[in-house]
Amino acid sequence: MDKVILALNKLTFNYGNNRVLNNISLDFEKGKFYGVLGPNGCGKTTLLDIIIKYKVPVSGNIKIKNKYIKEYSNEEIAKTVSIVPQDFYINFPFTVENIIWMGRYPYIPRFSSPGEENKEIVDRVIEDLELCDLRNKLITKLSGGEKQRVVFARAIAQNTPILLIDEGTSNMDIRHSIYILNYVKNLVKNYGKTIIAVFHNLNLASLYCDNLVFIKNGHIIASGKTEKVFCKEIIEDTFDVKCHIYGESSTGKKQMIWNIQ
Amino acid sequence: MPMARKNRASSYWGGPTFLILFLVLIVSLIISTGKGYIKISPSTVVDILYRGIIGELPDKGTNLEINYYVIWQVRLPRILTAMVVGGSLSMAGVIFQAILVNPLADPYTLGVSAGAAFGASIALLLNIPFLGIYSVSIFAFFGALLTLVAVIFLSSNSGDISSNNLILSGIIVSAILAACISFIKYIADERVSVIIFWLMGSFNSKTWIEFFVVSISTFIGFLISFYFSRDINLMTLGDRSASALGIRPSRLRIILLITASMITAVSVSVSGIIGFVGLVVPHLMRFIIGPDNRKLLPVSTLAGAVILLWADTITRAFLPREIPIGVLTALIGGPFFCFIFKRRKNIGFYG
What we know:
heterodimer; A: alpha/beta; Rossmann fold; six-stranded mixed β-sheet; four-stranded antiparallel β-sheet; 33% helix; B: mainly alpha; ABC transporter involved in vitamin B12 uptake, BtuC; 14 helices
């Protein structure tokens, strides 16, 4: 019955005197793909930081599966939420496989051997995300897009009900972006995962997301089903740039172009 | 590539590399103990070590008795102290590099050494007598401790401690302390040579007490950091990903920062400032067994022990005149570091 997996209630967050999130309330349902859109510095990343318990809001609360996030132990959080962060710079020469294994750490007690089950998951993720060729390469030697694919795979290996993606395909070429977004979309459809993804590419957001949330200056401008809120007024209001919307006939998804004058 | 497929988690402590280094350390210890003004053959060394351990004193008036005292009262405390200091500096180097997520960090990046040097300089300048022969070490230790407190205070920002803030604070505090030390040297007149000599580091006339103090701090430090060794791997992914993997980055950073600084402070208090071991050894070991801190930590500790043991043996027994060990490690370690750095960079080992 209860479809809400993640509930944000009146979240407020400040950086010093600077209010980044202002009284944000949002419900996220299980098995849906959410897109979060907004200009730079609008509070998107901070919102994700609060969900992974990396930052603590000034006021308001968060429930995951009807339990306050405060009551989650670090280990429980690690088994519930994973994140593909915006920055994917890794300073030490771990192999690609090493990095993906890190996604399994929360499931393996300290100082014990990982076991067949974890090994299978790692192998499957490497195969699914087409990383076999890179498997034994050093992460420090890869290109930006390749690094990002590895960091993405690491988060998928964590295999959590909620996956947060912060601009997770920004450095990938279009084929890899689409491949990886199709892959996670499939996780949503077939495995009931919930994805909350920050996008800068509005057209990709429209193609993949069930619901969209528009944020500006720490406020929610609009939130709802993609076909409803992906419209000229809301986008122009959020980004302060004129745009055109056109329907794409084959998929029925709307797309947009910026109108620069 | 050197590290292909070795990470199947079969050996968390470094496996064969660890065992080889352990053997090298034991052999080095025996060889080094025999070297010096009085030459003692390795078999005699082993015999004397064995007698000492089971508590059987050699007959009075024999050559063996002289060798026994040379080994147990002069050489061993010094050699073992050098070993443990080498191990602790390398271990601290691994920890600092991991928590600051910066392969160029070393145990002295945050100004611990500058703080210790400042404390020691004051003790040497004022010639403080009331703590006996340990007053310099005690002043050095508290100098390091106060510096650490200052650096943490400077870099903390509403409970969060970022690695960049720490590094910057360390640089600022070190610079101020360096100026203070220069000033002390300036007003120290003829005592300046004592200060300079202390700052360059030495294991000359170390006793069992110093060995036990460093050993205890190193042992405790090792237990703490080895316990967190898997967590510090996750720091590489950045604080956000680490958080989502169940780590509290700021808290972990503080715990390990204090641990690593304490072992560095104790080492520096005992031996003066010995550079490059804490920077070069972790790099070298990372090249051999990879960056997984579960292996890197124990293996680097052993390797640091071997390297400083030999550095001290060279200056003690092989050179015509003893030169400060801090100078020796920098003279050997510096060019060596340039070499591996250049080579690694060419094949993309570091960014």
